[in-house]
Predict the 3D structure of the following.
Amino acid sequence: MSTLGTLPKVVAFGGGHGLHASLSALRRVTDRLTAVVTVADDGGSSGRLRTELGCLPPGDLRMALAALCGDDQTGRAWARVLQSRFGGDGPLAGHAIGNLLIAGLWQQLDDPVAGLDMVGELLRTRGRVLPMSSVPLQIEADVLGLDPMAPDEMCTLAGQATVAKTRATVQAVRLIPKDPPAHPEAVAAVRDADAIVLGPGSWFTSVIPHLLVPDLRDAILTTEAKRILVLNMAAAEETDGFTASRHIELLAEHAPTLRLDVVLANDQFAESDRHLAKFAASLGAELVVADVGVHDGTARHDPNRLAAAYSELLIG
């Protein structure tokens, strides 16, 4: 655990834009930071590289590295380079530059973590990025309402990109292969952490999957670190129409023995659900409500406001 005068060691779980937002805030609070990232993306540039090279999908890992770049001119420039994509209609069209850099290093080093660490050193990131599993994964979901003529019929969807875009109601998700191996360094980071942060992000494809990798789930369930759940700004996409309470309930359904210390919710999302505090308490958590969103009418976390909330929870 952290001692007086030292910054807390924090592990943040997720993928995509949700984890990017969380890391962008957390790096303002501590540089003892590890991102543990989902590896089930099968769409776009990541999906193409995964299919062609048999590697882990690099896209969410790239976004995490970009989020950890510094706020100075050099850091911002590297973040833009990582995130930029090739144009045109040739073989490289649509590929993110950072994805190709990461995949190229993986081929050279034959070690995903060594490749990510090398990119981190190049970018002088405030923290480290690790894959949640040692192998690329597939997400499979049970959904209702896929066929409007049979709204009560349960159907199965496969693939992260497909599940993320479905207009059917997702009931549960699982990983293929079942019980995949966690990356040992990710497990070690959780066991050594002062705090862990789950969410925000796409609930079924970026947040819940961490609880479906046995060794990683066990580390999350048994760690002595403070466990913080960050809810999304609003229900959207995969959980469109779900209450804030339902988000918590879904975590409990996928990991029945999960216990939390804090549930952090944006004020507007919390105010729309009078049962939220009760559901948080059912997992042992205190509900903390704060204004952590941007004020431009979009449902996005503001890095500075979220950082202030993290600082209060992690440092006091």
